[in-house]
Amino acid sequence: MGSLLSARAALVALLAAGLLAGCSAAPQEAAPEPPAARPGRAADDSARWIPERIELPGRGAAPIAVASTVNGSLVVPERVGEVGWWDGSAYVGDPYGSVVLAGHVDSIAGAPGYFRALWGARLGDRIELGAGAHRQGYRVAEIRSVPRAELVDDEEVFGQTGSPRLVMLTCIGEYDAAAGGYAENLVVVAHPE
């Protein structure tokens, strides 16, 4: 069990270190690695499911794709209108842990990404995740900006223990071309209704 936790901690550290390095969609050269087996979660448990779409207030729905890690970085969908569900995070309906979604704030050409709407998120906003006939509502409970370098240590974001929650990540602030991205990540935490 200790080695599983150590491996998970190492994965989280690598993931956070590479998370949304630029937050702008760019062509991706590496193919995502196949998802790892998820211990303790039955594949046929219909109460737990992978989200396929998200709806933010005033934005309509957007598709959610599986976002794997490649060389320690979360591979967010290239299309800025899509959101990525981290395959190392909780399933919707799990009794614990973070359902982690990440999305681009804009494209390399400057077109707004779906998660740009998170810049206007307010406490109490309703977010809905869905897949087939499944639906789960969440209410925004926390909105904060985290320096990209500090995200690695944020247990609320990547932790898979504690109360179930939805954690949405994107970039915020000014784009720094010299640094190759944004220096801050926006973290929006929502609790199930």
Description:
The chain has an eight-stranded mixed barrel. The chain is mainly beta and 193 residues long. It has helices at 2-18, 155-158; strands at 24-25, 53-56, 60-67, 69-70, 73-74, 83-86, 98-102, 106-107, 126-131, 134-147, 165-176, 181-192. Strand 4 and strand 5 (73-74) form a beta hairpin. The chain has a single domain, classed as Sortase, Chain: A. The radius of gyration is 15 Å and the shape is globular.
Which secondary-structure class do the elements indicate? Answer: mainly beta
CATH architecture: Beta Barrel
Mean pLDDT: 81
Instruction: Kindly provide the name of the CATH class.
Output: Mainly Beta
Could you spell the SSE succession in H and E letters? HEEEEEEEEEEHEE
What does the overall shape look like?
Answer: globular
Poorly predicted regions are 1-18, 26-43
**CATH fold label:** Sortase, Chain: A
Which percent band covers the strand fraction? 35-45%
Oligomeric state: single chain
CATH superfamily: Sortase
Radius of gyration: 15 Å
Q: What level of helicity do the residues show?
A: 10-25%
Amino-to-carboxy terminus distance: 32 Å
Number of distinct beta strands: 12
Q: Give the strand line-up of the largest sheet.
A: 2-3-6-7-11-12-10-9
Work out the helix count.
2
Q: The biggest beta sheet, please?
A: 8 strands, mixed, barrel
Number of domains: 1
